[in-house]
Amino acid sequence: MIKRTLQELFEMIKVENDLSAFKDTVISGVSIDSRKIEKGNLFIPFKGEHSDGHQFVENAIKNGAAAALWEKDVPNPPLHLPILVVENTLLALQRLATEYRNTLNVKIVGVTGSNGKTTTKDMTASLLSLQYKVQKTEGNFNNEIGLPLTILGLEEDTEFAVLEMGMSSKGEIDFLTRLARPEAAIITNIGESHLLDLGSREAIAEAKLEIVNGLSDSGIIVYYGDEPLLHEQVPVIKSNVIRKTFGRSPQNDLYPLEIEQNDSGSTFKVNITNIEFVLPVLGTHNVLNALAAMAVANYFQVPFGKMNNGFAELKLTNMRTELLKGKKGEKIINDAYNASPTSMHAAIELISELTGCKNKILVLGDMLELGPLEEEFHLKMGESIDPDKVNYVFTFGKLGEFIAKGAKENFSSNKVFSFMEKKPLIEKLQTLVDEQTIVLVKASRGMKLEEVVKGLQ
Q1: Where are the alpha helices (DSSP H) in 213-355?
Q2: Rounded to two decimals, what is the model's pTM?
Q3: Banded pLDDT at 354 (limits 50, 70, 90)
Q4: 258 and 122 co-located in one domain
């Protein structure tokens, strides 16, 4: 993590007060949460809608922070303490991260996409860790605040950093990639997330493709080759970088062969090697995520023959195809972190392909931020579920009712249940589950369907 004197910080960012009395004070790491201050941290307060972090500055220093930033428009800065007065604390954080990144001899892998970026980030970091010292984005620290914090948390001897880059509007990934300056970029796919904000899949693709704006001229971009919006645009955007594609079809540089699913994970082969890979994660979509990670790792000299060791040590961020056990012995796939039509189709495909379970139950909630066609997306989702491969469909939420309506086109009415409250949903589920049951839970983050998972446990 960053370790600098206040005099050195003065030279890295624009500071508007006299620091001479504290110039030799050393900060170690950065925090934006006064409740999580570690000794020596630089505390960075932000002004929010409901609270102002500046009111916690003195307590942060009392609790171990070595210094703090202070936005100049906020009155009464405690200048008797090691305070750095700046124009804007967010801009100062970002500038500090930029300057620190410029001092590091680290290779950056940037990961974006509508779905699968967190899982792909975790997989890429695990494979690169076979040969290098690697750090990665923790949790969902993938925005204009989270990514600078991640960079400032890098150790100076870290060889690779795998950074997730999220967005909700055009221009955000452009900022993140120019700050990080990656040597490799991954675009997992183009889905329907953010249709409400961006209006079309074409606009979403343009926003995701901003990741190449900061990509090194000698770098590599790995992208989902089955997506026409990427296949057409990537070659002309940055023609001098190395390009590798992954996907289901043989037109890609990497595509999977002989995929098999069971309740402990996936096995598969890849077109360019005879090795059988064992992935402790369910779903064909996650096999595709693994291909993207494998392409980057191999580019950086990690041999395919070692990659099963990386997959064996894989640690995924919670609520992303997480396999759990319920109190009646049922298996639960907790994929409740987020949802879009693309990722929900993948979840339905996953449970449809699984073998070894006699009773398969889908619990699906609202997919948010889909714009004016949201009801149609949910209706078609329900219509796509095959009653020969799934036994029961449960839905939650107002839009979930459209999933149920679509499902009833193919299912008998006693196999489809729609709820607006979680308690009766859980109670009904508990009457249908046993040791031969697998339940998959999927919805947008705002629906908080992890509460259903907890109810079953």
Answers
A1: 228-237, 284-299, 307-312, 341-353
A2: 0.83
A3: confident
A4: yes
